Amino acid sequence: WDDYVLLLGCLLFLALEGYLQFQYSIFGTRYGLATLIPAVVFFILAYVFDHAGVLSLAITALASFVGISASPGMLLNNQLSEASLIFTGISLAILLIGAAFSFKFKLIKKHFTFTYYNFGFNLLFICLLAGCFTLDFPYLYLILVLVAAFLLARYAIMEKSFFFLLMTVVYAYIGITWAVFNSGAFEIFGLYYFVLSCAGVIVFFINYKKILKLK
Fold this sequence. Notes:
The protein is mainly alpha-helical. It is built from nine helices and no strands. The protein is globular and about 60 Å long.
């Protein structure tokens, strides 16, 4: 029950802080402070009480502090259209991924690696794809998407993680499909592309155990 009590306490802390800001404006117009404080508190609690759920809350609060929501909804709703916001998201993603790699190498809470990588790579892919869709030099961001997909695929195979392997395939497929549409090649062999890509997805699901070297 300790884990649930801690998680409930963190959620109540957020509710109390939101109420105080709404009712008394204790932070005034410094809205960033209202998200930075929970981020710091939750990071401390996550490591003190060894709680991955609280760590997720901490990362979410940190992303909110810099104005980012680590969800595909921002990409679908075209909320990531400003270069500064995209670059901020990429920086935060690299920070999370680097922290996970460093902590795992130093044997500090190795089981937190999944949480860091989950948020970090999702945010990285979302921001890089947003760069493909909205910024100059879009194919540069596409190359970065494919490089990130390659690195995550290697990690997925090493850790035998179907979740990260599936994430790699989904984001890489989105990037490649965008490139096909954007280059005008879809008008030439668009039907073949969807047939072949669907066949590739089927082959992937049939052989994912071989890819991950699972029994």
